[in-house]
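User: Hi! I have a protein structure encoded as tokens and I'd like to know what sequence might fold into it. I'm fairly new to this, so please keep things simple.
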């Protein structure tokens, strides 16, 4: 890695640490201010307390919509002694001196904390999936017992930016849309994470590998990526690549800084270090503050529907894997009972119905499946895609083959989706990997819009794509990896320093990916 690039990486990490400290300070000040306000408020049996003027629901909604205008100290009724209002004003003054970027970090930290808040009703392991967990015929969908009382409520993150009107009962109304972008697999081979190592800091930084493509990752309401293997740290096991992946968790920080907001964990390498490795990975995701799906540390966490509110639209997420590379035979039983769900054990129809009944307006299924290195989907992929579409999935995003496979529309009127069809991208290829074989170092940024019409129904529309290539330069032991926009290079020429052979490889990749995607999706130049 060039000296200047390494210095830039360290500067980025220092900035992230400063912003995180500022975010923690904001949260701590907020908590202290609330305690003081409540302590100074006179106790009156006829009063509901200092925030009686605004309901908790309204205050929470206002804060979620506009983190720049905190409700703390603004919505409170003035203290008869004047103390409460003065405290509120001074806290707002403090907030005004902190950068909006730091306040955004605080909002992200609060969102991550919400993700971990499992409702009390979910703290039972009993009966949410009545019947045997193993060997379900996906065509039959299995048999389910009567639902128990106290079924867990959905896990919903309220994202900043929702400013639409509401109907009675708090339901969002009116037309609006959000953009989802998904990328191919992060397969961090040993030579990749070694090239990210900064000797001076004795730490890893993947930011330079992502910086060319980061602007495209940031142009979405939510960008989702799959990371093969675990990111448990090296306290128990050294970092490793193929055949068992333990990636430095600093990758999570670089993903966040580059625009990725969610990662999927259900893949064939999820149990490379057994259930402890998966749970440690989830802990690191929480520590860095990135959203994640596909893994669960308890049955309650598994059963809590993963619903995220994105700019006023509630989106439900599912994540399954076809294989666990045989590791399930040696892992504890809970690893497959609820830790990570295989397709042949998945209650697909019930899972989608559960998301819908808990308020999801659209459902996206992320699935790790297919035949490695095959450019066409196999019969099992097509069969499961049909099952998911007919069960009501709006979009299916595939991974694992390590090459790009086609995107298609699946007609499924019985699924009940708006338009009666489901968008399926069978495989998005490799986004960042050490593989150098032609086609295995290529991937795609796949985009689609979820649009709510005036009648309140949501539909997936306007699929688009950007071909990508992991470009490698340097010599063995000193390689440099960068993800580049293949379409832009094919149109405008190679960047300075790219070899002629790499440019030709990028151009070939661009042509291949266009041939697999253009029947359904539109090529985007950025």
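Assistant: Happy to help. Inverse folding works backwards from shape to sequence: for each of the 526 positions I chose a residue that suits the local structure. Here it is:
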């Amino acid at each position: 890695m060039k000296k200047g690039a390494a210095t830039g990486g360290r500067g980025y990490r220092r900035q992230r640490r400063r912003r995180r400290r500022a975010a923690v300070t904001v949260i701590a000040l907020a908590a202290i201010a609330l305690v003081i306000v409540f302590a100074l408020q006179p106790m009156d049996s006829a009063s509901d307390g200092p925030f009686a003027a605004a309901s908790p629901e309204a205050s929470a909604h206002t804060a979620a919509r506009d983190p720049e205008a905190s409700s703390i100290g603004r919505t409170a009724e003035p203290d008869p002694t004047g103390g409460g209002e003065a405290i509120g004003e001074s806290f707002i003054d403090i907030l005004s001196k902190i950068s909006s970027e730091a306040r955004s970090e605080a909002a992200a930290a609060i969102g991550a904390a919400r993700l971990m808040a499992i409702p009390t009703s979910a703290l039972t392991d009993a009966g949410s999936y009545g019947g045997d967990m193993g060997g379900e015929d996906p065509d039959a969908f299995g048999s389910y017992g009567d639902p128990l009382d106290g079924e867990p409520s959905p896990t919903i993150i309220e994202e900043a930016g929702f400013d639409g009107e509401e109907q009675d009962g708090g339901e969002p109304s009116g037309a609006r849309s959000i953009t989802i972008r998904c990328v191919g697999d992060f397969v961090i081979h040993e030579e990749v994470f070694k090239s990210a190592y900064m000797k001076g800091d004795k730490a890893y930084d993947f930011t330079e590998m992502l910086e060319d493509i980061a602007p495209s990752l940031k142009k979405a309401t939510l960008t989702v990526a799959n990371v093969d293997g675990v990111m448990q740290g090296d306290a128990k096991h050294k970092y490793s690549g193929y055949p068992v992946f333990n990636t430095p968790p600093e990758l999570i920080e670089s993903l966040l800084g580059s625009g990725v907001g969610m990662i999927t964990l259900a893949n064939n390498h999820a149990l490379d270090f057994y259930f402890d490795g998966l749970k440690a990975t989830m802990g690191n995701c929480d520590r860095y503050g990135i959203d994640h799906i596909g893994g669960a540390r308890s049955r309650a966490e598994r059963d809590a529907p993963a619903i995220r509110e994105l700019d006023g639209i509630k989106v439900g997420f599912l994540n399954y894997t076809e294989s666990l590379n045989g590791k399930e035979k040696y892992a504890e039983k809970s690893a497959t009972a609820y830790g990570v769900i295989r397709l042949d054990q998945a209650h697909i129809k019930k899972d989608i119905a559960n998301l819908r009944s808990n308020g999801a307006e659209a459902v996206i299924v992320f699935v790790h499946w297919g035949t490695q290195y095959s450019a066409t989907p196999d019969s099992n992929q097509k069969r499961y895609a049909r099952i998911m579409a007919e069960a009501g999935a709006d979009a299916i995003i595939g991974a694992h083959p390590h090459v790009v496979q086609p995107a298609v529309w699946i007609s499924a009127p019985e699924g009940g989706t708006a338009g009666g069809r489901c968008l399926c991208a069978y495989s998005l290829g490799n986004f960042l990997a050490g593989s150098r074989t032609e086609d295995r170092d290529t991937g795609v940024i796949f985009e689609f819009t979820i649009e709510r019409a005036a009648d309140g129904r949501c539909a997936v529309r306007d699929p688009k794509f950007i071909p990508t290539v992991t470009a490698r330069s340097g010599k063995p032991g000193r390689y440099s990896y960068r993800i580049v926009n293949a379409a832009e290079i094919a149109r405008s020429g190679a960047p300075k320093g790219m070899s002629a052979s790499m440019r030709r490889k990028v151009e070939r990749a661009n042509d291949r990916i266009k041939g697999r995607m253009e029947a359904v999706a539109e090529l985007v130049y950025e």
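A useful reference point when you look it over: Residues 3-115 form one domain. Feel free to ask if any position seems puzzling.
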